[in-house]
Structures are given as C-alpha cells and as structure tokens.
Amino acid sequence: MLILIWAAGVAVIQAVSGVWLLAAVIGSGLVASLLAPARSWRLVRRVRFLLLAIVVFFAWFTPGEALVADWPGLSPTAEGVLLAAQHGGRLVAVVFCVAILLQRLSVDRLVSGLYALLRPLEFAGLPASRLAVRLLLVLRYVEAGAEHGWTHWLDEADDPLDETISVVRERFGLREIALSALCIALGVALLGIVK
After folding, report:
1. What is the pLDDT of residues 123-135, one digit of tens each?
2. pLDDT digits 0-9 by tens, 151-161
C-alpha cells in the first residue's frame, strides 16, 4: 500500500508544473533531508550527470529567444531553461521520494511490493519477474555504495557468485484492503466536491 501511495505521488509530480512543481521539489527535499539525509544526497549525486544532460539539451537545444542577446549562438534559450527546470525538478523530486521510500522499506521489501503490484500486468506481456530481479540488482548496487564502480564486476566474471536471487511477492493484508477502501472513498468524495 505504501508503494501504491508513493507511485500516486510520483504520478502527481509528473503532472504538475510551475509553482506546484516548485512546492513539490521543496517539500520532498525537506522531508527527505529530515528522514533520509545521507541516502538523499547519495541518490542525487548518482543522477548529477543526468541532471547536467537535461540542462544542456533542453537549455541550449530548444528553439526560442536567447537569454543573452549579445551572443545568441552561445546563449541558452528562455524556453529551454524553463523546460530544463521543469524536467530537472521532476527528476530531483522523484529521487527525493525514492530516498524516503527506501528509508522506510528495505530493498527486498520494496521490490517485492512492486512485483506484487506489477504481477497482474503479466497477462499483457509485462515481464514482472524479470523486471523485479533487474530492479533488485540495481538497488542493491546503489545501496552498497558502489565504492569500486562497475569495473570490478568485470574482474569477477570468471568467479560467479553462488548467491541465488529470489523475489517474494507480498500479499495484501486486511489492513491494506481497509486502507485501499478508505483511499478510494476519499478520492470519490473529493471528486464529488470538485464537480
């Protein structure tokens, strides 16, 4: 249930823009700095090159009015800077949300919960079990700190690990079903108020 609420929050972050996006970034940053400061900083550090790529590609390659009129060929565009801020802000807010979620759940429980939520989509061709194993490996790598980088895996290619990776699917309990019903009822009530 916690993962489902988190996924809804991430979806809302992707839908908002402007002042609401700024509020989401600041709010998630404050909560993450209180609940998971070390993990938040580590995850933001891991996406720093992606953030740089977002800024460069959107700010300098989006057509529009140059910010520095004297050097239009070298200047980023106003429209590009706005797009870079939006996409970069969304990425940072999601990273903060991931840090908060990982502080609350272990990596194994997080992957198990995602597997439980994605398993019904296997009939549509989504390989939920393979996706869960890959996500588990990535999150374990991130959580381990990756002191040596990825190149040390090449040295260990001749000596495979004997570790078996298994993903356990957690089931919804009575508490989760009751909380789901309450969330659905609140959502329906809010939709009725808005209309």
Report:
1. 877 787 777 777 7
2. 555 555 555 55
Cβ contacts of 47 within 8 Å, gap of 6 or more: 91, 92, 95
- CA nearest to 107, candidates 131, 142, 153, 147: 142
CA distance 80 to 93: 20
| Residue in this structure with the two tokens 């009725």, named with its chain if needed | 192
- Single pTM value for the model: 0.66
C-alpha 142/C-alpha 101 separation (Å) is: 14
Cβ-in-10-Å burial (0-12, 13-18, 19+) of 107 comes to middle
> In terms of C-beta density within 10 A (0-12 exposed, 13-18 middle, 19 or more buried), how is residue 123 classed?
exposed
- DSSP one-letter code for 159: S
The residues, ordered by sequence, that sit 6+ positions from 39 with a Cβ below 8 Å of its Cβ are 32, 99, 102, 103
